[in-house]
Specification:
The complex is a heterodimer of chains A (about 220) and B (about 260).
Chain A (H helix, E strand, L loop, with lengths): L4 H41 L3 H15 L3 H11 L9 H26 L3 H9 L4 H31 L11 H12 L3 H30 L5
Chain B lengths: L5 E10 L2 E11 L4 E5 L6 H8 L7 E6 L2 E2 L2 E4 L2 E4 L2 H8 L2 E4 L11 H12 L4 H14 L15 H13 L5 E5 L10 H14 L3 E5 L3 H7 L2 E6 L2 E6 L1 H6 L4 H12 L5
Parallel strand pairs in B: 3-10, 3-11, 8-9, 9-10
Antiparallel strand pairs in B: 1-2, 1-4, 4-5, 6-7, 11-12
Helix pairs in contact in B: 3-4, 3-5, 4-5, 5-6
Classes of the chains: A mainly alpha (about 220), B alpha/beta (about 260).
């Protein structure tokens, strides 16, 4: 087994195409997870039990089952119900839903950390419920949760190879197809690892900066 | 005799098994300054919280400025108030909290401007000039651009008073507003309240352990124990010549703890 630099240069453009899809899936998945998580967190706090209970159950269900199974379900089972999705769309939905159940816990903790007195002051100022959320609670709850959210998005990034199982042509899938057609695994799979490392190390450094920036909370 | 500003009629309130208020009945006249005193757990703070709609009631009726607070008339019957009705009623009432509860992510000025801009659609310019007037009145105009975290407790509480005044309430509720403050600086806040009482005809209810201040400030004092009014009267009657055994015992304890009466 020998490292072949010529082969590396030959397959690099194909892998770069894969990296683009990996990054795209991560970004779209993160946006979806951020939105879904907020929706779940707000629904679970709703006084309406017909909303909070089913959403809570669904969130626990999604968190308690593997992402790979969910991806298979979305891509291979839903077409039986007449819902056919492109691979990337199915992958982003899978990532967004799965990680949305985790970010929901981050939102929940962040919202719970806002002192009860803030809710009471908002009421004494006669603010409506939407005004209380958008002007008082979320502006205080969101900044401290940014590092935790970013942490999940980095974790999501490293799980994108699972999308190769539903034919998304992301980095891992491109590497596998290159490897399968040339019978050489060492270069493509090593490069996959290198690509992930090259992206996640700066991400983690950026995350540490976020943590430093938002660790100090404003006083009462 | 003008009709009362606040009418509390046979109000009951429980937290689980613990009954905080038992068939409580009293009225407050417009412009009256009322001090509520008593041991902790006697229900005095709960009354303020119920008036601010932070707590519901289990039984009884409350009228504020002639309208039901927790109910509204519908086809000749009284039904529980909806959010729209509570919104109308809350506009008549302002509250200052023991722990200030300023919004920490906004400047002092924004804290005071926010409620008029959001609930009365007051324009930015009008809201700002009114907020500056109020901050001036509480002696905090020079801190308008500061963040709450940069202020001392007394300064925060003065801003909180300005914020509560911004909606021009008819009733102001003060819930142990000096309890969390440095004793040497308590006077700063009390002076603002004296000024407020002298310059406005607002109805004011205060829950306090500052017996000296209650004595000078209040028109009438209610002594609470066990969710009931044990004794009520003019400050001199309550503080100098309390009739009830429990009032006497409470005042002795307060004096022993170093509070002046």
């Amino acid at each position: 087994m020998e490292w072949d630099w010529n082969f590396v240069w030959q397959i690099l453009p194909t892998l770069v195409e894969g990296v683009k899809i990996t990054i795209l899936a991560t970004l779209l998945g993160s946006v979806l997870a951020a939105v879904v998580g907020m929706g779940i967190a707000l629904a679970r706090r709703s006084p309406n039990k017909f909303l909070s209970r089913p959403v809570g159950f669904l969130a626990e269900f999604i968190r308690g089952t593997p992402l790979l199974v969910q991806l298979y379900f979305i891509f291979f089972v839903l077409p039986d119900a007449g819902i056919t999705l492109a691979p990337l769309v199915a992958g982003v939905i899978g990532l967004g839903l799965h990680y949305g159940t985790y970010t929901a816990e981050v939102y929940r903790a962040g919202i719970d950390n806002v002192p009860r007195g803030q809710w009471e002051a908002a009421k004494a100022c006669n603010l409506s419920a939407p005004q209380t959320w958008t002007r008082i609670i979320l502006p205080q709850a969101l900044p401290p949760m940014i590092p935790a959210l970013a942490n999940y998005f980095i974790a999501m990034f490293k799980e994108t190879p699972l999308l190769s199982a539903i034919t998304v042509l992301e980095l891992m899938n491109q590497a596998k197809s290159v490897a399968n057609s040339s019978y050489r695994y060492i270069e493509p799979i090593t490069l996959v690892g290198v690509f992930f490392l090259v992206i996640s190390i700066p991400s983690v450094i950026f995350l540490r900066q976020l943590e430093r920036r938002y660790s100090g909370r404003p006083g009462r | 005799m003008p009709s009362p500003m606040i009418e509390i009629d046979k109000v009951c309130k429980s937290f689980g098994e613990f009954q905080v208020l038992r068939d409580l009945t009293f009225t407050v006249a417009p412009g009256e300054k009322l001090a509520l005193i008593g041991p902790s757990g006697s229900g005095k703070t709960t009354i303020l919280r119920i008036l601010m709609t932070l707590e519901t009631i289990n039984a009884g009726h409350i009228k504020v400025d002639g309208d039901h607070l927790w109910h509204k008339p519908a086809n000749g019957n009284l039904v529980p108030a909806d959010e729209a009705h509570l919104h109308l009623m809350r506009a008549k009432i302002g509250m200052v909290f023991q722990l200030f509860n300023l919004f920490p992510h906004m400047t002092v000025l924004r804290n005071v401007m926010l409620a008029p801009m959001l609930t009365k659609r007051t324009g930015r310019k009008d809201a700002q000039s009114r907020a500056m007037d109020l901050l001036d009145m509480v002696g905090m105009a020079d801190k308008a651009t500061s963040m709450p975290a940069q202020l001392s407790g007394c300064q925060k509480q003065r801003v909180a008073i300005a914020r509560a005044l911004a909606l021009s309430p008819k009733i102001m509720l003060f819930d142990e507003v000096t309890s969390a403050l440095d004793p040497e600086l308590v006077e700063e806040v009390l002076n603002v309240m004296r000024k407020l009482a002298a310059e406005t005809d607002m109805t004011m209810l205060l829950v306090t352990h500052e017996m000296g201040f209650a004595h000078d400030f209040a028109d009438r004092v209610l002594f609470f124990d066990g969710g009931k009014i044990v004794e009520e009267g003019k400050p001199d009657e309550i503080f100098r010549h309390p009739k009830q055994e429990r009032t006497q015992a409470f005042l002795r304890k307060i004096i022993a703890a170093g509070h002046r009466v």
